Amino acid sequence: MVNYKRNVEELKDKAVFFWTKELIDEEASISVIPTLLNTQSKFISILDVADSSPIAWKLALNLTQDIYPNLFLKHLMVISDIGAEPLKNNDFKSMFPQKTMTYIWKNKSHDYTFQKLLDKPFLNSSKLCVDGKGLIKPCELTPLLEDVIMLLMYAGVSTDESVDEGLKDKCIIGSLLGKRDELEQFIKQRYIWVSRITAGATSNSMGQLAQRYVLKKLQDKLPTWTLSSNGSIPGVSHNNGKTDMSFDIVVCSPQNKWCAIEVSFQFTTNSTIERKSGQAQSRADLIKVAGHKIAYVIDGAGNFKRSSALRTICNYSDCTVAFSPDEIEVLSEFLKTSL
To answer: Which residue from 9, 77, 78, 125 has the fewest beta carbons nearer than 10 Å?
Structure first.
């Protein structure tokens, strides 16, 4: 007989501990922060050497393989705190009625004539190739990308009176070309801030990836069943029936039997597993009274450092599995035999 209700030691024997290549590749397609941090020094070097003219950055880009035009633009968007959405909402035709931006660089006046930006293109991260998927592949320096790069570098030193004040405050990096110390201080301060505000979001996105991975594998194995993400089970609720209780994955068999599935894969320690542990008993009690089941998919080196939390979860779980394909198969067999 298959042992579905495992203890921590039995679960650990089946664990994979670290992300599979499949998930690493998928995570890379949506998370850009590691790429930005890994190329930060090269980005600073380009801005440092590109001081012979206000467009010398174009030549510097051609001389390196590590930074390509869309990645260069993404760095500028992060340090200026201006994404695709704010760009989309600006009326650049009104700002630059002559289609030209006049700006001061090294105490001299320069002009840049926009090529595509004033044609009101539909701007989003995908079109600019600066979303996760776009940054996986280098793209050429298109006229639109060049327009946006020049705007983010020099709008802050533009002499055009109609330029938005928000752009003037944020788009100043062009004035620092060739000033290594000032560049490093400014950019690294920005990235400290970016790292702090994205740490939770990155962890959350990885949690969502793990959840979607399990859901997809179960859907493939149970094609006639009903499965949903972040769903609820009839009769299982908070606050005396006033609020439905949400679970990472909800499964309903053709016989209308239900199972809640909670997923946690953490390769570093965080509070997610402690939260799930704190909820484990009350959730199990409510689900049992309603006549249904609850299962957990738990893995990751970080989670196994929280042995007390894992022990609590195992105690109140009807089926506990790790994250490998074989383990998801065990979970699907549990669902087939129990619902």
So the answer is: 9
